[in-house]
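Posting this for the archive.
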Amino acid sequence: MPDASLIADAETAVYQYLAEHLPPRYVFHDFNHAKATAKVAAELTEDSDLPAGKRNALLVSAWFHDVGYTEGAEGHEERSAERAKAFLEFSKAADEIDKALVESLILSTKDNYKPKSRLEQWLHDAHYSFLGRKRFERRGQLLRLEEETLAGQNFSTHEWERRLLELQLDTKFLTPEAHEAFASRKNKNIAEQRDNIRKARKTTIRKKTGKDFGRGVDTVYRVTLRNHIDLSSIADGKANMIISINTLVLSILITAGSAGFSLSPTNFKENLEFILPVLLLMTTSLVAITFAVFSAIPKVSGQEFTDEDVKEHNISLLYFGNFLSLPKNRFVRYLRDLKDDQEVLYDDLSRDLYNLGLVLKKKYRLLTYAYRTFVGGLVLSFFVFLFMLVLK
């Protein structure tokens, strides 16, 4: 049987120390966690033939194993061991306790340490016993609140549920006593956790894609894409207009010029007030036509990308200029994956919107040059004509 006086003193010492020094943000690694760990450690070793001295060392270690959190999570095991040693130095009931054993037991709770002795395994199982208990979900929420507070960031429900599942899958009970007491419930908790992940994933996707707000986000994408397409059609119509007008002007000027003017020195000087404005208007019309043609000319341009870009969704394959470089089966698989992950689907739609915006920017910039050249050519030709008449 454990030394009741020693264990009671350990409980009192841990309670007083945590009450005075543990920051409020530690809502998981608190006195309740130490109490639960010590209680489970006592239950697991109740029917064992463990000598009283070693069992006392185990229970003291269970009480003190996380008190180092008063100064932060980093290196808390060493601080916990030092605190336990300080307690044993001043406890009258600790004469038969192996202080080195208590220190080694507490240090064995480090994440990267694999417990070897039976005592270390019992302490490990007591420490993680919450994974196989009915109140696992409540303890998990406290752990989430603590980690979010310490990290200064919030986890999405889906992210946190996956982290809890990974903790459950990566942690196993090492002793037969713990396996018998907690393994069955742990497996049930894992099954429930997988259901929670599916629910959380749907909730997260609905939030990220705006499904919780009805069809508003879908409408935004649909209207914006339609507006981009309409603007592209308007740009092509404007380009055709400038091409038609300037082609007509150019044809008339070429016909009139070839019929009425001669480039001989005498004729050139006599008709200079007509030839210069005509040449200037022909030149600006040709330039305007060039800009308009470049604006309306069809261009299939795809981005250079690697398999890693496709895997990491850094490229949108919804644009035909990109996906035509892929085999058909791979493109079909890509679309199938999009149906399973709506967040990536909306990201691809956003990339398409942005790329359409870049195309429109280029179209309208060239159209601006075309219209300015055309209007500038008309105005400049008129003033040159007036100027030449005045000179003459």
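Residues 342-391 form the longest helix (50 residues). The chain has 16 helices and no strands.
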